């Protein structure tokens, strides 16, 4: 599967390998997808009165290590600059793995009274985490792009509300743009961000590998960082209080999940909403047919579609055969291919071929725009439906440890009643250790199925408190 992901992203021209392991070049084909999601998300957070900013890439060691507990588990992944030219720096400087410690000293400076709240910032940037386990394009790279939101409120209620608002935006990115079904949920104590109060996430599932993947996270940090960085404010009554904070992010990992969920034997399959080219128009000249007429029809078709806001391009290269072009655009995942040959020209029609299911239809050039729009909408919806069907077929409800073991062996995403105890999750990890990697909790869905009185935990036999998804994960 990974083998396929690796091949597909390179041949599909999304990624080029680089001479530093775990670092990848994002070519226009993948950067275009990132930019489309960025336009959506950026507009949505601006509606929420969140403002963009940019903090430095570098962190001093004293600030980074200010919160020992939070950094402890992550320390091995922090990359350091130790030299400039040939001389050692007096004090090494870290490269941000995330920006809590970069930003919060300034939150402390900027927040004085309740009128300074809420403070709601976001930045689009790169971060570096020097991972050692097998790097994978998009899914686990040493440098990646993300947005990180960091907000501070006077009350916990406001923070709680925002956590879920942002989580809903993440759900929309996955479902409406990437056509990937996700589950909104809360992380266990073991899997949450240790520096925070609680963590919510959207979780996707890759049926082919039987692995869950955390799609994006929205944390309520509580007052932990406020304590550490002295982010205090005075309320209307002149009383001192500490702010309540959130942080949230989604990254270029989204693209990797999309590749794995929709990709097939022919390569990438891009959902129309994120494809930088939604329609590719290929001329199919034939012997002494009117070649120029066909080329002109292609150009005119692209023009008509572009004017209607559809992202269309023609492929008029004369050094490749139509068949060669078809497979190249299939490899790149363009949602819809339009072919124009002599017969189409004569009938004032074009031939449409869907990337997702290969189905063909001839449409009249008179209502080209309307029909192409309908086709693209259908493709978008079909991709989500198909992914949802596969995902749902991979979900297994279990009640006992034996059922759990069986379902895990069958690469399922497992929904089980759980006692919600950290020791029990540790035990599950321990008992499922192996070359495939241990199972862990993915999330407890916000929408909980009914839990009948007397239901017991699948792993401990104690009374169950909630339904939780379990599985192997990326
Ligand atoms: C790696 C090295 C150092 C993750 C790290 O999820 C620190 C960290 O704090 C680290 N890897 N984390 C947790 C990041 C938490 C949080 N940050 C803002 C998010 C969303 C965006």
TrEMBL record:
Keyword Metal-binding: no
One family name in Pfam for this protein: HGTP_anticodon
This protein's GO CC annotations: aminoacyl-tRNA synthetase multienzyme complex; cytoplasm
Keywords: Aminoacyl-tRNA synthetase, ATP-binding, Ligase, Nucleotide-binding, Protein biosynthesis
Residue ranges constituting the Aminoacyl-transfer RNA synthetases class-II family profile domain according to the UniProt record: 56-271
Database matches in SMART domains: ProRS-C_1 (SM00946)
Gene Ontology biological process: prolyl-tRNA aminoacylation
Keyword Nucleotide-binding included in the entry's annotation: yes
Enzyme Commission number(s) of this protein: 6.1.1.15
A GO term, aspect molecular function: proline-tRNA ligase activity
Domain of life: Eukaryota
Reaction(s) the record says it catalyses: tRNA(Pro) + L-proline + ATP = L-prolyl-tRNA(Pro) + AMP + diphosphate
Protein name: proline--tRNA ligase
Species of the source: Linum tenue
